[in-house]
Amino acid sequence: AAPPQPAFVGDVERLLADQGRPVEGLQAMLVQSNHNVRGRVTYCHFEPGRSRPSHVVKLARTRRSRDVVAEEARGYQSLTVRSEFVRRQRPRIYHLGEESTFVLEEFVVGRTLSTLRGRPVYEARALDWLEAFQSSAAGGPLRRIDLVERLRRLAAATKSEPFRELANDTARKVMGGEDFEVAEVPVHGDFTASNILLDGNELCVIDWEWLRLGGWPLEDLWWYLIV
Fold first, then answer.
1. Are 208 and 92 in contact (CB under 8 A)?
2. Neighbour count for residue 140 (Cβ, 10 Å)
3. Are 99 and 7 in contact (CB under 8 A)?
C-alpha cells in the first residue's frame, strides 16, 4: 500500500504548475529526519510511473527552521541575481507559505563523487567547479582581522574535530604573519563528495542548505578534503 501522503504534496504540485512543469499524482517518501539539527524533514518525490525520484523537498517543521529557510531563500536569490554561473545550476524553488515552508530542489540521478574516489579526473572537475563558483560572485576584501574572526567562528560552530583544529591553527598562523587581503567569496557550506554528483557527463552540486554569501576561499576546500 502506498504510504499516506503529506498535505504539502499539493503545494508542490501547484508550485511546479506555476513554473510551467505541471505534475499531478506525486508520491512522497520520507528519507531523512533532521529534527535534532534544524527541524527539517527531507522527502523524495516520485512522479507517476517513474521508479526514480524527480525532486527532493526539505520541509521546515519548526519556527527556527522556517527562519533558516527564509534566510536561505534570500541568500540564494541574491546570489543568482549576481551570478550567471549559479543561475545555470539546478533550480531551487522556495515556498514560504503559512501552512508549510519548504525548499524544492530538482533531483539529480547520478553517482556521487564519494563513490568515485581515487579517480583524479573527477576530483579535478569538482575543484574546477569550486573555483568557478567562487569567482562568479566575489565580494569585497577580507583583511587579516576579518579572516581570523571567521576562522574562529568556524571553529566554534563545527563538531568536526579535525576541522576545528585546522581552523584554530590557521587563525594563529594568520595572526602571526604579515597583514594581507583576500577576496570574500560565496561559500556552498557543505561541499563534500556526497553532495557532488555526476549526472551523465554533467557535474552537479546539490544541497545548498548551508549557503553563505561572505566566506573565505579555502572554507569549501577544507570541507571537501576533511569530510
1. yes
2. 10
3. yes
- Copy the grid coordinates of residue 54: 524527480
Pick from 119, 124, 91, 100: which is nearest to 8 by CA? 100
Q: What is the spatial distance between Cα 63 and Cα 67, in angstroms, rounded to a whole number?
A: 6
* Rounded distance between C-alpha atoms, residue 55 and residue 53, angstroms: 6
Q: What is the pTM of this model?
A: 0.77
Torsion over CA of 205, 207, 211 and 216, rounded to 10 degrees? Answer: -50
Task: Go through 88-121 and write b for each residue having 16 or more CB atoms within 10 A of its CB, e for each that does not.
Answer: ebeebbbbeeeebbbbbbebbebebbeeeeeeee
> CB under 8 Å to 112, separation ≥6 — which residues?
193, 194, 195, 196, 197
Query: Secondary structure of the chain: what % helix, strand, coil (to 5)?
Result: 40, 25, 35
- HSE-up (13 A, CA, CB side) for residue 95: 24
Question: Residue 14 is which amino acid?
Answer: R
Which three cell numbers, joined as nine digits, stand for 12? 508542490
130, 204 Cβ separation under 8 angstroms: no
Does 67 have pLDDT greater than 60?
A: yes
CA atoms of 148 and 172, how far apart (whole Å)? 8
> Who contacts 29 (Cβ-Cβ below 8 Å, separation ≥6)?
3, 43, 44, 45, 46, 53
Note the pLDDT tens digit of each residue in 70-96: 888 888 888 888 888 888 877 788 898
Q: Starting at the edge strand that comes first in sequence, how are the strands of the sheet with 111-112 ordered?
A: 111-112, 196-199, 202-205
